[in-house]
Every structure is written in C-alpha cells, then in structure tokens.
Amino acid sequence: MIYWAAAIVVLTLVAMASGKVPPVLALASGLAAAGVTGVVEPSALFGGLSNGGVITVAAMLVIAKGVIHTGVVSRVAWRLLRTVRTAGQTLRRLIVPVGVISALINTTPIVAMLIPAVKELQQTRGIPARQVLLPITHATTLAGSTTLVGTSSNLLIAGIAGNAGVEVGMYSFAIVALPVCLVGWAWLLIASPRTFTAADEAPDTDQDWRVELPVAPGAIGIGRRPSALGIASTQEYSLLAIRRGVEELEPDEPLAAGDVLVFESTEDGVAALWRSPRFGLSEQRLYAASIAPGERGTLGDLEAHGDVDVIAARSREPLQETAADAGDTVYLTCESPQALQEHSDIGLWQDAAGKAPQPARTWWALGILVAVILSASFGLARVEVAAFAGAVLMVLSGVLTPRAAVRALDWNVLFILAGSVGLGAIVVESGIAEVLSDAITTVSAGSLTAVVITLAVSTAVLTNITTNAAAASILTPIGLTLAAAFDIDPIVLLALIGTCISFTFINPFSHQSNLMVMQPGRYRMASFVKFGIPLVVVGLATAIGVSYLLVS
Questions:
Q1: Residue 457 has pLDDT above 90, yes or no
Q2: Where in the sequence is the domain holding 90, given as residue range(s)?
Q3: Has residue 552 been placed in a domain?
C-alpha cells in the first residue's frame, strides 16, 4: 500500500510543479485516488475541512479584510512616505511598520495597499518602483513567518502538529524565523539598490500592448478620420486597423459607431486612450486585472466566463486569441466591480478610484485584531476560536457587511490548504513519513547538522516548485518523526520548516504577492531568480545556523 501512496504523492507534486494543472485539481485528484484505493480512511483524508489551521486562515482573511477596509494601512503608508527622497530611504521607512503588520494579518492585502503609494513616489519624486516593490514584498513574507497567524503555512503546520499532540503557540516560529527575518531585512536594504538600478526603470516606450477600443454611439469621433482626431500615431500608441463587423479597414477610414479601433500601445497609452473623449467612453471605468493562478485559456475564454470586456493585453495577436496565463495583466471593463469579484478567472484587480474606506470603523477593526492576537498569545482561547470570533465581530460591529466578509474568503487558498492536509494524512498514514525520516537519518549518519541542513534545503526547494501548503503537509510529519528519533524539541524543527517555507523568492508563481508586484515593478522571471537566489542562500544559512544552536 505504501507504494500506491508514494505514487499518488509524487504524481500530485509533479502535477503541481508542472504549472499545467491547477493546484486545487491536482490535490483533489490525489485525494480521490487515495480514497478509491483505500490508502487512507476518509476521516483522515478529508480532515482538512475541519482542521483548526484552515479554519483560522479563513477567519484571518475576514479580519484582514476588515482592517484593510478602514484604510488604516494606506494612511500609515502615506504618512511614512511624505518626505522620502530615495528608494533606500523608502525601504527603511516601510520595512519595520509593514513587517509588524505582516506578522499579524495576511501579507497580500498589505502589498496591494502599498503598490499605488510606491507608484506615486515614482511619478512625483522619481523613486524607481522596481527598487522598492519586490524588496518590500519579500520583507512582508519574511515577517509573516515569525508568528502563527502571519502565514497560512504556519497555521497548517500547527494544525498537522496538533493532530500529533504537539501544541504550537503564537510565537513558536519566532525562535528561528525572527533572526532570519532580521538578517533578511538587512540583506534587502543592502542589496536592492545594487540589484535594481535606476537605469532599469527607463520609461516604457515599447508599444507591445494590443488595444481594441470600441467606438460608442454618439462619440465625437464618428464621421472623422483618425489622423484628424490625432490618434493615428503618437509616442504612446499607433493605430493599426479599424475593425467594422468582420471587415478590417485601413487605419485612416472615417469612424462609425460600433467600430473597433486596433492599436499597438505602451501601457501608459492604454489609459490615455481610454480617457480620451473621442470614443464616447468617458463615463466608463477601466480596470487592471491579473489572471488567477492556475487558470489557462485565452482572453476570449475570459470574456465567455463572465460579464467583462477585455480592452488591452500585452500581445501581438487579436485579443480573443491571446493566451491568458496566470499572473498576466489585462485591462478590461465591466458594468460593475461585482463582476470582477465573482469572476473565477480573475485574481487581483484594481481601478483608478478604488473603494471608499471606512475610517470611522478603524478603532473597531484594530480593537478586534488586537483582542484576537492577545487571546491567542496568552492562551485565553484556542487560536481558531479567537480568530473565528474576531471574524464574526467584524460583521456585527459594522466594519464589514456579511457579503464583504464572504468575498474576503479566498476559496482557492482554502481548498489548497484543506487538500494539503489530506496529502499530509497520506504521508503519515501510509508510513511514507517514517520511511523518509529513516532515509534522512541514514544519509546524515546520525548527524543533527546534516538533518537540519537536509530539512531546510528540502523545504526551500519544495516551496518554490509546488506550493507552501504542499511543502508544509509533506515535511511537517517528517519533521515530527525526526524530532522523535533524535529526541529533540519538535518545535525547533517545525519552526525551521515554517521559516524555510517562506523562502518563496525565486519563483514568482510560488506566492501571490510576487504576482501582484510583477507588472507594476516591471519584473521578469530573471528578476526573481537574480534577486531571490542570494536571499534564499542568506536565509538558509541563518536558519540552519540558528536551528543547529537550538538543537545542539
């Protein structure tokens, strides 16, 4: 039976690492195979649905939404950045306060709030956004690993460990994660200005965006030629063709209602075209959206799956035929933001105005967050109970509406976590964890140093090729078995695993925050590799050194 279990686990991880199968589908397929073959009892296989860690993640997503909805993070960021003049100064101002917040709530909304602030610094003071966005994103990830509620993977580790009789406290991970965080921050402050130079932030003059803009009835441009309207060719965009029904006309034909103007443009040109009053679209709103992780297809599928119209994407092909890959940014319009919130293929999105905050509820939101943290820290309530109560209070106090609270739940993340708990159950119940821990013990020749190094490196590699949840579910049982075999405190190895799982710095698809800053910072895959590998090496060296001191 162990061979069946091993095959299921390996195939699931390979499918997740390939990027061709959504993680949720890979996990669901693995659990289904394990259930049908009888590898694990259903009660263990689907234990993630009632796992305390998964419940806590769901509740903390609601609490984080409430805190962000008050606008307090944005207000703090703007005040901190009022007088900065350089990228280094910006990082020094942000890194500690943002790190503290990241240790208490999910990092993703924090990064989302910082992006517009950093972009405005670039426009008004010439501070390159690429020197700030990725370093501050990695800083929040490092800080999140220091507490139980800072990351979903820590909560997942605690849930799996709790089932094995090991209680993990609010600050158990800090014994390893805090030194790693501080060393990592120091490296970020030193390395980021040297890695991302100001010259890298040259204005985007490449017209590599395809824009397909409709001409609305009553537009002032109807009956006039594009050259007369001044839209035939500029530094920001060039008109390629006029599409009228199934015909494609020359780019200087007089415009008619219902025409679609096809441009090649810079990204700034997309917004400039949309704001133009020539096309009768001035009352509509344009949204920038990223394709959700795990989604594949075309932009035509994106329109077919929801009530949205794609206006622009980085492509040379017709938009309907352009591939829609995870993390890609597209510009689209729809009748209401609700269509974006409910669209299964859209991950993150934002518009020019954003949503109105509720500053009057700031103290309610902060009070609830502090109460949850204190209750869990001092053992007044189990963390899942405290977090669940806090989420309910966010609604009862009026900080969030019931609808907003439900929308705060990231079902993709929650299902991945629940599925990962089942994957961990396969590893434990089938005996894989014991076999792997015996193999590690044999290879390390009984050396604690070798065990720590093997566990740390394995975690960092696995989290960058699959997901942090999968890494947690596989390695937590192994860590517990190794701790028992070497008669050491299991908390140390769990803290090592939780810390190294946060090293999602090399692969932009391994963490949602990476995808968020990819477009605004003009980063490429090579940017993550170049900047991430040294940070992972620094983090691993620190984590291994601290863990060795704790177990020796």
A1: yes
A2: 57-201+356-411
A3: no
